[in-house]
Specification:
The chain is mainly alpha-helical. The protein has 2 domains: 86 residues, DNA polymerase, domain 1, CATH 1.10.150; 171 residues, Orthogonal Bundle (hpI Integrase, Chain A). It is built from 12 helices and 3 strands. A 3-stranded antiparallel sheet has the order 1-2-3, with no helix packed on it. Helix 2 crosses helix 4, helix 6 runs antiparallel to helix 8 and helix 10 packs across helix 12. It is elongated, with a radius of gyration of 23 Å.
Length: 297
């Protein structure tokens, strides 16, 4: 067994200790095994033999095999994580893959609200009516947690822990716990204690219902978001995922670790989260091209 194989096995044990979901762990293992097969085929037996030229050749082979861009990006991320592990353990002197960029997926880019637009949107529901208070908390939770609308409408009061300011989110794939910021927790507490009882029907445990006490639909949430976006003059195309996209990009802008964002968003595959990193880089590139005085020449 080569040195590289030994270190990959060490890394696999390290991943087990991280408490990753089975799907995430299996994805990493699949990617690492594929990378190991390539290294063996070109005679790379030691981690210090890995270089950018060789890694580029590996990625080109994945392209030739017609892997999707998202799958290739996941393989890039897995290899970069392995390289970072080797560097932290002192096995390699330079993390040569640290600056390797993922493939930009040229799909239709989602609209992202800037921070001022988010603040205005969250402040749009005014007054003390039950509807206004419900809508404010609904918008706050979407942005505070990055959850999907389909997850929001399934929340129950039992999923809320106001002692620790966390929300348990149940999806079809797995359960996760996400923190919420203090102001969102304060509004949520007020809503649960004072306003929610006025519209909850049949002793339902659902956190949000329509004004008749029945289950709130995805379309209903979409209408709420669009209503307030129109009220404050946001001209961007708003979708049920707009606040989720904005949540991810704003965390990245403020330096959050992409693996933490992956867990908070419930992504099973890191390549799904890397989309936002690519989006942010593209945003900075566009801004540079527009505003840097020498970039226009």
């Amino acid at each position: 067994m080569s040195d590289l194989e030994n270190y990959i096995n060490d890394y696999k044990h390290y991943l087990l200790s991280k408490g990753l979901s089975k799907a995430t762990y299996d994805a990493y293992i699949s990617d690492l095994d594929r990378f190991m097969q390539y290294c063996t085929s070109v005679g790379v037996k030691n981690p210090n033999q890995i270089d950018l030229t060789g890694f580029n050749n590996y990625i080109n082979q994945l392209k030739i095999k017609n892997l999707s861009n998202s799958s290739i990006n996941r393989n890039i991320s897995s290899a970069k994580s392995f390289s970072r592990f080797l560097f932290k353990e002192g096995i390699i002197k330079t993390d040569v893959l640290s600056e390797y960029k993922p493939i930009f997926q040229n799909s239709e880019l989602p609209q992202i609200l800037d921070r001022n637009e988010v603040v205005k949107l969250l402040d749009a529901p005014k007054g003390n009516s039950v509807k206004s208070k419900r809508d404010k908390v609904l918008l706050e939770l979407l942005y505070a947690t990055g959850m999907k609308v389909s997850e929001l409408i399934e929340l129950t009061t039992g999923d809320i822990n106001l002692r620790f300011n966390i929300v348990k989110i149940n999806s079809e794939k797995h359960e996760r716990t996400v923190p919420i910021y203090p102001e969102a927790a304060r509004h949520l507490s007020e809503y649960i204690k004072i306003y929610r009882p006025a519209i909850s029907a049949n002793n339902t445990e659902l956190l949000f219902t329509n004004l008749n006490g029945n289950r709130l639909s995805r379309q209903g949430v979409w209408k709420i978001i669009k209503q307030y976006a129109g009220k404050i003059g946001i001209e961007k195309t708003i979708t049920p995922h707009t606040l989720r996209h904005s949540f991810a990009v704003h965390l990245l802008e403020n330096g959050a670790d992409i693996n933490d964002i992956k867990e908070m968003m419930g992504h099973l595959d890191i390549s799904s989260t890397m989309f936002y990193s690519n989006l942010l880089k593209n945003k900075f590139s566009r801004g540079y091209a527009i505003y840097h005085p020498l970039a226009k020449k």
